[in-house]
């Protein structure tokens, strides 16, 4: 189907080689190989978390950021830590509050894309001439920085502080660069998620970073929403079909052409899945958007919007994948896993698919890839199968998210989107249900 060739962005291991505002191309990947460099062997991004603290203050934010960044494998990230450390020790910063200066710089860069004026740092930064050891100074009426990474680290620190205090004034702001997003993720106080033992999980309701690297922005939900921790299964959907019995029309969504769209395309499901009880816990696929919508209403919910889906996957910190910024071929159910090879770039994956040299994969039962757990505790939001959302297009298609078992790892990014006909029934597309409201523990 057409959604197996979505418009994909740069590969995560290549992003470290270029400016944060640029986009890696297939040409760069080819040039690296021509020069004898295997992109898969380049330094990986290490996830380091701090204990969650909703009421973070400036001191904890900045010092926590330095600690996190300094331990990272990425030289660009470590350089940001170095600059932040030097800022705290810079004698040109008056008083004992360099953290305040960092937040002023960060807010200015995040909100306005410029360094603050001298007037905004009055009483915080001395106006004397630049010292040889200075990392920040005033020149021509504006704050100046020795290294760009300091500004991006300040922007990340400011964003994390505001996001986890649920400051809705930052909603709608564009993220200055992908490096700012990366630095925010490394500093995030959210501990690595584990598979939820609850049927539903709360979607983060505060500000969160969504969208692809070149157009990431801060968004939030208008009201509390829960999401099924796992996608709907074969046995659950069959129970639905039996329950609606001879009067399926009452559950037919508005605009649906006929009741037949509620039926799965059984012949596309391998190994007699609907008749084999042993396979009843597998995700239900080959269901149209109409069928997924009807089932969701039957259980008292609905399909999630594209935005709700992405915030459930990424939380506040804008992680690249639902589980973090780094992934291996075995993190999730994807083509790299089945091929037992790193499919660097779209062209490599497409060539292998056309040759039939990637072993045939398939959906797996929830929890088989425990490291693929999202920010909110939902499993398999990256890989396994694409997921229907309620977001539709005038062309008679709906947005699907998450990637599937036959897509390369790069397609599993939380910002990746595909588009599929409302009546389409693919063995690589399933769904999970959203419910309005929130659990007593909040989100």
Q: What can you see in these coordinates?
A:
With 443 residues, this protein is α+β, with helices and mostly antiparallel strands. It has two domains: 2-38 and 193-230 and 301-436, paralog of FGE (formylglycine-generating enzyme); 58-187, no CATH class. The protein contains eleven helices and eleven strands. The protein has helices spanning 26-34, 58-70, 75-89, 98-112, 148-164, 178-187, 234-244, 289-298, 306-314, 335-339, 346-355, and strands at 136-139, 142-145, 200-202, 208-210, 217-219, 225-228, 386-392, 397-401, 417-421, 429-430, 434-436. It has a four-stranded mixed sheet with strand order 9-8-7-10. A three-stranded antiparallel sheet has the order 3-6-11, covered by helices on one side. A two-stranded antiparallel sheet has the order 1-2. A hairpin with a 4-residue loop joins strand 7 and strand 8 (397-401). Helix 2 (58-70) crosses helix 3 and helix 5 packs across helix 6 (178-187). The longest helix has 17 residues, at 148-164. It is elongated. The two termini are 36 Å apart.
Q: State the distance separating the first and last CA atoms.
A: 36 Å
* CATH homology group of the largest domain: paralog of FGE (formylglycine-generating enzyme)
Q: Can you give the helix content as a percent range?
A: 25-40%
Order of helices and strands: HHHHEEHHEEEEHHHHHEEEEE
Quick structural summary:
The chain has eleven helices and eleven strands. It is of the alpha+beta class.
How are the elements arranged and paired?
Blueprint: H1 26-34, H2 58-70, H3 75-89, H4 98-112, E1 136-139, E2 142-145, H5 148-164, H6 178-187, E3 200-202, E4 208-210, E5 217-219, E6 225-228, H7 234-244, H8 289-298, H9 306-314, H10 335-339, H11 346-355, E7 386-392, E8 397-401, E9 417-421, E10 429-430, E11 434-436
Parallel strand pairs: 7-10
Antiparallel strand pairs: 1-2, 3-6, 4-5, 6-11, 7-8, 8-9
